[in-house]
Amino acid sequence: MIKYLKREELDVEKYDECIEASIQSMLYAYSWYLDIVAESWAVLVLNDYEAVMPLPWKRRYAIAYITQPYFCQQLGVFSKNVILEREVVRFIKKIPKYFFKVVLQFNFQNKMDIPKAMQRENYVLSLKKGKTEIFKNYNKNRKRDYKKAEKRNFTLEKNLDSELFIKFIEEVPKNYELDSYPFSILKNLAKLKNQYIFIWGIKEDNALMASLLFLKDKHRITYLMPIISNEGKKRGYATLLVTKLIETFSESDLILDFEGSMLEGIARFYRSFGAKKETYYALNSYFFDSFFIKKPEQN
């Protein structure tokens, strides 16, 4: 039986144990992480936490709706056993109808064939090989930028102060707007800095040129928030940061997860390290849409 539980009704220990033991395990879904990135959240639970589906939600003008939080690319169903498409759809059907709209991104192992679901692209790089073998798959631009950056007199700090990271974000010109709400979430993640959250920085002449907040568990390194100054870009430090990650964690079972992107320019940058495309599904539907669920074909 699938039941809906509010956050305060959740057995947190059993929930987090399910996430950790699941074959889809991702840090995004842990209770402590959702407590930071989601305004509110609830969970669909199968039996005694055999599988779970977190539901991050907001309320605006008395209307409740499910929406994907910032800094949380994939959620969906997490299960201790392989979950079939029809079981994913079964969870979706159990979402309470008082949620006016559902905007939710599922993890890459959740497959579905429903009208309002669309495929999105992510790029990942296996770190099983040694750094030399991985470097061979860089394209010529990445090799050039890495060699250029390596010649400079830089310092890599693997425990950058969170306040310095936050100040750097505020000061560095960006080609996008980081509104106050997602920035507040990012600051909370940076200040937490636990065994899963890391901040690295590259300095030259004691000036910060590039920094990266990333997540790491026993499965993945998630390239969550890179910030590169204009001078840092010119000096190849965007490439250097990724390469230092690869050098540190190569010859392991980890995956370097670039978190996107559907934007071709960014996707091209990730592919230039040899990263491969990995697709996942995103659902965007109003519950009054009568075509919300298409029954999967029976084999």
SSE inventory with pairings:
Blueprint lengths: L1 E5 L5 H10 L9 H7 L2 E7 L4 E10 L2 E5 L10 E2 L5 H9 L7 E5 L11 E10 L4 H6 L3 H11 L3 E4 L4 H10 L8 H13 L4 E8 L2 E10 L3 E9 L1 H5 L2 H13 L5 E3 L6 H8 L4 E11 L13
Helix pairs in contact: 5-9, 6-7
Question: Which key features would you list for this structure?
Answer:
10 helices, Aminopeptidase, alpha+beta, 13 strands, 299 residues, 2 domains
Summarize the structure.
The chain is α+β, with helices and mostly antiparallel strands and 299 residues long. It has helices at residues 12-21, 31-37, 85-93, 131-136, 140-150, 162-171, 180-192, 230-234, 237-249, 264-271, and strands spanning 2-6, 40-46, 51-60, 63-67, 78-79, 101-105, 117-126, 154-157, 197-204, 207-216, 220-228, 255-257, 276-286. It folds into two domains: 2-121 and 279-286, 3-Layer(aba) Sandwich (Aminopeptidase), CATH 3.40.630; 128-253, Aminopeptidase (3-Layer(aba) Sandwich), CATH 3.40.630.30.
Which range best describes the helical content: under 10%, 10-25%, 25-40%, 40-55%, 55-70% or over 70%? 25-40%
CATH top level of the largest domain is Alpha Beta
Please give the domain count.
Answer: 2
Shape: globular
Structural class: alpha+beta
How many DSSP-defined strands? 13
Order of helices and strands: EHHEEEEHEEHHEHHEEEHHEHE
Radius of gyration: 20 Å
How many strands, what sense, and barrel or not for the largest sheet? Answer: 13 strands, mixed
How is the CATH topology of the largest domain named? Aminopeptidase
Distance between the termini: 24 Å
The total count of helices amounts to 10
Low-pLDDT residue spans: 295-299
Question: In terms of quaternary structure, what is this?
Answer: single chain
